[in-house]
């Protein structure tokens, strides 16, 4: 019977055999990759050589397109008489290629920017967090070089004055060290290549801008030829721009801004190339974000019209621009002044409400009592008593707060109440004066409650006649004899 240790050893032997098989398979795959030439991509990951990182400028496609663009810009051919360019024409194909090339140039600039950051991080590691734009970063790195004292370096014109001050202060306390000569030379060469790509991109955009009048007439009418060319170049063509939602069109060309602790009150975020339009610049600062969203929405509509060649003349774009202008003017109008409310016209007809004694008596009958007035009134700073206590139930207001401690108010009797009391007092609520043992001198009245009355008072007031003699104690029944 095998022990536990023997079973573990057997498992280890099996694992070693499997590992040997895996190593053999990996060696076979490496041999196949070497045979197929797949290791070329791995060698391209060597960031010490700039040519292995940036290959666009040496590509045949880049050289041919740039040559065609320079020739077209030198000729300055009149394209206004051609009308709409068809998709089969070579110039239209060149514009489409330029849009695709501008996107590739942007990606290439980002790759070179990463190369420059990796190399220059040893000298000034804080600079990449202060200067975010790749072209500005390349210009600053080329200008500074290995200089330690930045007071000797003139950065005026490359960066805003606030950022220059922050960069100078940070450079005085940085932990970086000067770069070796070969590393500095590669970094400066990468900066030159990034600046060359940026100038090539500007040429491409200038060419596309000169042809935007008939490529995208409606979009050019809304935002202008220059901004339309930049939007098309960044989006990757007119068809790509037409498929893009307006919220993304608004962000095309937006730069990450670093204010270095300064106020953000005047800074515009989430705004790209649209901020360069004439309508945006003429709008007051408080309304610019609304105008930017409106411009992005109308630009998307104009690009969709141009993508299907819906309006070659550009009438739709001009109408959209006029609509934007009217809306911005409407936003700036002051609110309408508040009109004074006139008094109502006095009535010349007599009122239907009657007056006089009857109305006064009715008002006096239904008037609010002093007790109800006190219950509806509250004294400042003194809690009111309530029927259930702790503020629950019906509140008593100022009742009982006069100092007596009783929830009772002395009310003077009105004339109407006196009249009603006199009327009820005339009625007899007591017994009729019989000699029964149930006779009582107490009477219940609705006004005074229980009162002591004289049952014989009413009998004494009765005169002679049938009422006085019918139940008289001394009188007898009379018998009338008929004759």
Structure report:
This protein has 483 residues and is mostly helical. Among the domains are: 47-75 and 85-215, Helix Hairpins (Orthogonal Bundle), CATH 1.10.287; 216-260 and 270-335, Orthogonal Bundle (Serum Albumin, Chain A, Domain 1). The chain has 22 helices and two strands. It has helices spanning 4-36, 39-43, 50-53, 60-75, 90-120, 127-130, 134-144, 161-172, 181-210, 212-215, 217-223, 225-235, 238-243, 246-249, 278-281, 288-307, 315-332, 357-366, 370-375, 415-426, 456-461, 466-470; strands at residues 442-445, 449-452. It has a two-stranded antiparallel ribbon. Helix 11 runs antiparallel to helix 16. The longest helix has 33 residues, at 4-36. It is elongated, with a radius of gyration of 52 Å. The N and C termini lie far apart (160 Å). The model is unreliable at 18-45, 79-86, 430-434 and 464-468 (pLDDT under 50).
Topology summary:
Blueprint: H1 4-36, H2 39-43, H3 50-53, H4 60-75, H5 90-120, H6 127-130, H7 134-144, H8 161-172, H9 181-210, H10 212-215, H11 217-223, H12 225-235, H13 238-243, H14 246-249, H15 278-281, H16 288-307, H17 315-332, H18 357-366, H19 370-375, H20 415-426, E1 442-445, E2 449-452, H21 456-461, H22 466-470
Antiparallel strand pairs: 1-2
Helix pairs in contact: 4-5, 4-9, 5-7, 5-9, 5-12, 7-9, 9-12, 11-12, 11-16, 11-17, 16-17
Q: Please state the structural category.
A: mainly alpha
Order of helices and strands: HHHHHHHHHHHHHHHHHHHHEEHH
What is the average of the pLDDT values?
75
Strand residue percentage: under 5%
């Amino acid at each position: 019977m095998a022990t536990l240790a023997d079973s573990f050893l057997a498992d280890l032997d099996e694992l070693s055999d499997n590992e040997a098989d895996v190593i053999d398979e990996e060696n076979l795959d490496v041999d196949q990759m070497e045979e197929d030439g797949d290791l070329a991509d791995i060698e391209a990951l060597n960031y010490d050589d700039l040519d292995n990182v940036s290959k666009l400028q040496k590509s045949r496609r880049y050289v041919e397109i740039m040559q065609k663009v320079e020739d077209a810009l030198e000729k300055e051919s009149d394209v206004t008489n051609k009308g709409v360019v068809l998709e089969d024409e070579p110039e239209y194909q060149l514009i489409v290629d330029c849009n695709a090339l501008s996107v590739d140039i942007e990606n290439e600039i980002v790759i070179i920017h990463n190369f420059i950051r990796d190399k220059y991080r040893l000298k000034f590691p804080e600079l990449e967090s202060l200067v975010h734009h790749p072209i500005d970063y390349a210009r600053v790195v080329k200008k500074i070089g290995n200089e330690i004292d930045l007071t000797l370096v003139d950065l005026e014109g490359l960066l805003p004055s606030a950022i220059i001050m922050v960069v100078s202060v940070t450079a005085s306390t940085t932990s970086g060290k000067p770069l070796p000569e070969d590393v500095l030379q590669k970094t400066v060469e990468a900066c030159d290549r990034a600046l060359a790509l940026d100038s090539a991109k500007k040429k491409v955009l200038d060419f596309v801008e000169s042809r935007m009048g008939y490529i995208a007439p409606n979009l050019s009418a809304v935002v202008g030829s220059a901004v339309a060319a930049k939007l098309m170049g960044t989006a990757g063509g007119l068809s790509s721009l037409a498929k893009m939602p307006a919220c993304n069109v608004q962000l095309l060309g937006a730069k990450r801004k670093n204010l270095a602790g300064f106020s953000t009150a005047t800074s515009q975020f989430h705004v790209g190339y649209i901020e360069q339009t004439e309508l945006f610049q003429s709008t007051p600062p408080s309304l610019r974000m609304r105008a930017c969203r409106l411009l992005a929405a109308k630009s998307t509509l104009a690009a969709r019209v141009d993508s299907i060649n819906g309006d070659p003349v550009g009438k739709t774009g001009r109408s959209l621009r006029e609509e934007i202008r009217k809306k911005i003017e409407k936003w700036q109008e002051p609110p309408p002044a508040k009109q004074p409310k006139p008094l109502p016209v006095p009535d010349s007809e007599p009122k239907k409400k009657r007056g006089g004694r009857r109305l006064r008596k009715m008002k006096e009958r239904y008037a609010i009592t002093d007790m109800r007035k006190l219950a509806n009134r509250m004294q400042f700073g003194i809690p009111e008593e309530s029927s259930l206590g702790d503020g629950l139930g019906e509140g008593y207001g100022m009742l009982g707060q006069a100092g007596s401690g009783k929830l009772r108010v002395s009310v003077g009797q009105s004339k109407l109440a006196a009249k009603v009391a006199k009327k009820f007092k005339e009625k007899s609520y007591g017994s009729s004066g019989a000699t029964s043992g149930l006779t009582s001198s107490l009477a219940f009245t609705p006004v005074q409650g229980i009162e002591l009355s004289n049952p014989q008072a009413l009998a004494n007031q009765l005169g002679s006649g049938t009422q006085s003699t019918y139940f008289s104690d001394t009188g007898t029944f009379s018998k009338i004899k008929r004759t």
